[in-house]
Write a structure and sequence with these properties.
Helices cover 86% and strands 0% of the residues. It is mainly α.
Length: 202
């Protein structure tokens, strides 16, 4: 330090240099980090909301049925409610499928890939040709494990490990069953086509 600069002057220069350096380099980095964190939290909140929507709507659909012998007014009201819950499941599974890539950004690694698989599996279950009871049962099973794994308390390690294993197992089983159904449908269609061809030739 030069002798002509007083002690209070050197402290002021250091403070000014620190302020300039922080404002030019550190603050922009912190702002970017904060924006990324906020985006991550918003994406996680949306995913949580949609998963809970699936759980609650499926539970309501399974528990609230339209009994025989009810009045037309009650039947219309229950039908409207069930239609609304159907739309909730449809909208939630569609949102998860359209935003599945956010799992990689939010969680990363194998957890992000597993979350993406859940999004696709949930949507495929809902739009499949399964019976409504089978759809709701499968959705309830995988969504419960999904919610425990991704949004349950981090202190319950055993629950997380079990949920991950069960979620992977269930999705693999459903994928195999769907593949077998597709093959049987293709074979059935081919046999019908061959039968029509044979009939036309004879």
């Amino acid at each position: 330090m030069l002798d002509w600069i007083p002690a209070w002057g050197s402290a002021a220069l250091i403070s000014m240099a620190t302020t300039i350096f922080t404002g030019r380099y550190i603050s922009p980095l912190l702002e970017v980090r904060n924006r990324r964190f906020q985006t991550k939290m918003q994406a996680q909140e949306k995913i949580t909301t949609k998963a809970l929507s699936i759980l609650t709507a499926v539970i309501k659909l399974r528990e609230v049925q339209i009994p025989d012998g009810v009045t037309d007014t009650l039947r219309a009201a229950l039908t409207e409610e069930r239609d609304r819950w159907h739309r909730q499941v449809d909208e939630a599974t569609q949102h998860l499928t359209d935003h599945a890539q956010e799992f990689v950004f939010t969680f990363g690694g194998s957890m992000g890939e597993l979350g993406m698989r859940y999004c696709g599996t949930a949507r495929m279950i809902w739009i499949s040709d399964r019976t409504e009871e089978t759809k709701m049962r499968h959705l309830l099973e995988i969504t419960e494990h999904f919610h425990t794994l991704f949004f349950g308390s981090r202190w319950y390690v055993r629950s997380h490990v079990r949920a991950m294993g069960e979620l992977q197992r269930l999705m693999s089983v459903m994928k195999k069953k769907a593949g077998r159904r597709c093959r049987r449908a293709a074979q059935h269609a081919q046999s019908r086509c061959d039968g029509r061809t044979y009939g036309s030739e004879s």
